[in-house]
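hey can u run this one w/ S-adenosylmethionine bound, need the C-alpha cells asap thx
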Amino acid sequence: MEMGEKNILCNSVVAHDFEEVCPERVIKFKPPLYKQRYQFVRDLVDRHRPKKVADLGCGDTELLRLLKIYPCIQLLVGVDIDVEKLQTNGHHLSPYLGEFVKPRDLDLTVTLYHGSVVERDSRLLGFDLITCIELIEHLDSEDLARFPEVVFGYLSPAMLVISTPNSEFNPLFPTVTLRDADHKFEWSRVEFQTWALRVANRYNYCVEFTGVGEPPVGAEHVGYCTQIGVFQKTSGKAPEACASEQRERHVYKVVYTTTYPSLQQEKMLKCVLVGEVLVQVDRLRLRTLRAGERGARGARPGPPAADAPPGPHPALGTALTEAERRRIERSPRPFCAGGKFFVPLQRLLAYPKLRRFQLAEERLRALIADSVSLSADGSAVVVDLHNPWDYRPEDS
Ligand code: SAM
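ok here u go:
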C-alpha cells in the first residue's frame, strides 16, 4: 500500500509528519488511489463479465469483497503470501443473511489460498481474469524473473491486469526514494512498458497501458500515479503450455472457502419459488375476496376485476408492461369452488416474478409439490378461500 492511500501509513519511508511540515505538497486523491484502482478492475468486470477471477497478492481481500457482488463471477480466488492477512479477512467474504433470502442466480465459490504467485498451482488454471494490483513491486529480482513464466506462461488467463507505482510521479510526493519500505523497485513508464511488452510478446498477449491517479495541473508530463497494463491473450498458445503442465498440482493451502446460496441449487430454488407462489396466490385470493365483498355491498363494479392482473402497487410502484399484462390476461383464470381458491400454475407462470425462472409447468409442479397443496390433476395451487386471520371490516 502506498502513502496517503489509506489512513494507516505502514512501513512508509515517508516522514509521518510531513503533511504538517509541508501540507501544500501532499497530494490527496479523490477518490483515494486504492479505490480508483479497485474501480478500474470493477469497470473491466462490468465490460468483460468474467466467470472466473483471481486476485494475486489480494492482501486484506478488499478487492475481492467488491467483486463478490458481481452476478457474472462464479469463482473468485485470492492468493497471498501473508497467511495472517487471509486468516483475518476470510470472514468478510462470507454470504450475508440477505444473500440467503434473495439468492444469486448463479453459483459463486470464493476461496483464499496461501502461497506465492511464483508457485504453480493448477487450481488457478483457466481463469478469465487475473489481477495483480500493487504486487509486482513487492517481488525480489528472483521472483520477478519467475513471475512471467508462472502467471503468463502457466496460468495463462484470458485477461491480466497489472498495476504498479509510476516512479516518475514520485518527485511530486515528499518521498525519499520508494513509496513503501517493502517495495523492491518502482518503475518509470518506459521501464514498466519495456518489461510488459517483452512479456506480452513472449507469451502471446497484447497489452494496453493506462493508469489511475491523475497528476496535478502543471505536472501532466509525469503521467498517472499508478500505471496499469491490461494484457489480453491473443489467439496463439503460450509457449510453455504443454499437456504435462496441465496436470493436477496443488501447492497452495486453502485458508478459507465458501459457497454462496444460488438459484442453481435446487434447495434454494425451491425455497424461493414456494415463497413467490404463496405470495402471489394470497394476493389473488385477497383480491377475489375484496371483489366479492364489493359485489355483496352492491357497489358498482370497478377496476380491477378480481382475477385481472394487478395494477401498479401503490407503495412499490411496480407497473406491468403491456406485454406482461396481456400474457397474464391470456393465461387460465383463478377460480373458486367449494370454499377453495384455485390458481392455475399457468397463471402463476405468467407473472413476471415467476416467469423470470423460465420454468415449464411440469418443473414448477415438481419443485413446489411437497410444500403447497395442488388440485387433483396438479394443474393449480389450492388454498382455502377464507383464512381465520383475514381482516374483515365487520370484525373491527
Ligand atoms: N492487492 C492488494 C491491494 O491492492 O489492496 C494488496 C496490495 S499489497 C501492497 C501487496 C500484497 O502482495 C501484500 O498483501 C503481500 O503480502 C502480497 N505479496 C507479496 N509478495 C507476494 C508473493 N510472492 N505471492 C503472493 N502475494 C505476495
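The two ends are 65 Å apart (CA to CA). anyway lmk if its weird
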